Amino acid sequence: MDSESTLEVRKLIQPYSEVQNSQRLSNDAQQNSRETLRLSNTQAAELVERLYRFKVESVKRLGSYGDYNFHVKVSGVGQADHHGFVLKVMNADDSQDDEQIAAQTAMMMFLESRGFQVQRLQQDRWGNVMSLQTFRREETGRQFSTHHNVRLMTYLPGILARDVTFDSPSFLAAGVYMARIHQALKDFNHPGLHRPSFKWNLRNLPAIRKYLHTLDSEEDQKMVKTVLDGFIDKVLSRLDALPQGPTHADFNISNILAREEVRNSEGEYQICGLLDFGDAVWNPLVFDVAITLVSFMLTAPGCPIAYSTHFLTGYETIRALTEAERAVLYHCVVGRACQLYVLNAHTVSVDPEREDFITRSCPNVHRTLKLLAETPKHEVDRRWLEREKFS
Questions:
Q1: Is residue 149 classed as helix, strand or coil in its secondary structure?
Q2: Is the pLDDT confidence value at 7 over 80?
Q3: pTM of structure
Q4: CB distance 16 to 36 below 8 Å
Q5: Distance from chain centroid for Cα 346
């Protein structure tokens, strides 16, 4: 990260101890308090007006896996912000990790400075781009308090990739886009990206064993255990051989914005924005590739494995995979599908209100996992190498 960008980030990202009206709960207190925050549109509007001094015209709740997001339109802003803003209230657990939040914020600002379309953070009335706010509520006669990181970001117009189907040239272009991000991020680092205990970190895949009880069938539990054993043996034992760096780690159909193009050789849809840097982590770059492949496989037209070859073709026009990366890619892909299946089941079991969003974000995850787990590695590798067309 260059010195100018570092200076700008340090200026805007203040430690929570310097943010007005913010407090911290101890880890034990946070864990013992209930996470089930109920934030209404009216409360979201009041929060924006109090912290940012905007006059709110409308508020719409947006879907989210673990946070609380609202599309907020305000009056008195310029043309650049006429699409409005996104109010993001992070879940209480992640809100405790000051350094990681600073890392994802810094990554967004860095990529924006390199010409990528990401959300811009707005300064609040005190000049900060984030603050920690206390939310109190009463449930079943008891008082609960949780503290949540709050940010306001520009709303990027576009079509979520989950709402369309990328044709082969569009999916190839998506591979190019990710490789360009990886190339740009070679000049970026932040201590908050090193997250050894983050549950969505693919390095921590074996930790999902503790959630196997949320799966309905013993057959599925056995399948997951087999995948985990392969991942431990074939991937985790070879981490030092894999190129590593900053990764978005959630480059999926719910976080990619596209615009419809006049049909040409570059595809019907082009990526015009990238959302949600909450999973950003320093990891093997091939993990990022695997995460994206699985996400698009879930909505693939035709054979998911054949479809995924287009992304790989595009990616390798910018950055060729190493032999070590090729050797582990299958295990990373089936491992990610496994991670989605198990952690989604766990999330729905503890917070049923998330089920609709999860279903829309991860359709066909069980079917895709079974296809990958039941297809021999050498067969998947052969298809990827041959760069098959749509089937």
A1: strand
A2: no
A3: 0.85
A4: no
A5: 18
Render pLDDT for 227-266 as a digit per residue (tens, 0 to 9).
999 999 999 999 999 999 999 999 998 899 999 875 555 6
Instruction: Provide, rounded to the nearest whole percent, the portion of the chain with pLDDT above 90.
Output: 68
- Amino acid at the residue 180: R
Task: Indicate the helix (H) or strand (E) that contains 75.
Answer: strand 68-75
Cα(162)–Cα(142) distance, integer angstroms = 40
Please write the tens of the pLDDT for every residue from 330-362: 999 999 999 999 999 998 888 888 888 888 878
Q: Which amino acid is at 265?
A: S
Residue 219's alpha-carbon distances to 349, 368, 370, in angstroms, are 19, 15, 11
DSSP 238-268: GGGGS-EEEE-S--STTTEEEEE--S-TT-S
Helix 304-316 to helix 285-297 angle (10° resolution) is 140
Q: DSSP secondary structure string, 334-357?
A: HHHHHHHHHHHHHHHHH-GGGHHH
DSSP state of 141: T
Contact 241, 376 (CB under 8 A): no
The tokens describing 167, both together, are 């044709």
Tens digits of per-residue pLDDT, 21-30? 333 333 333 3
Q: Write the DSSP symbol of residue 123.
A: P
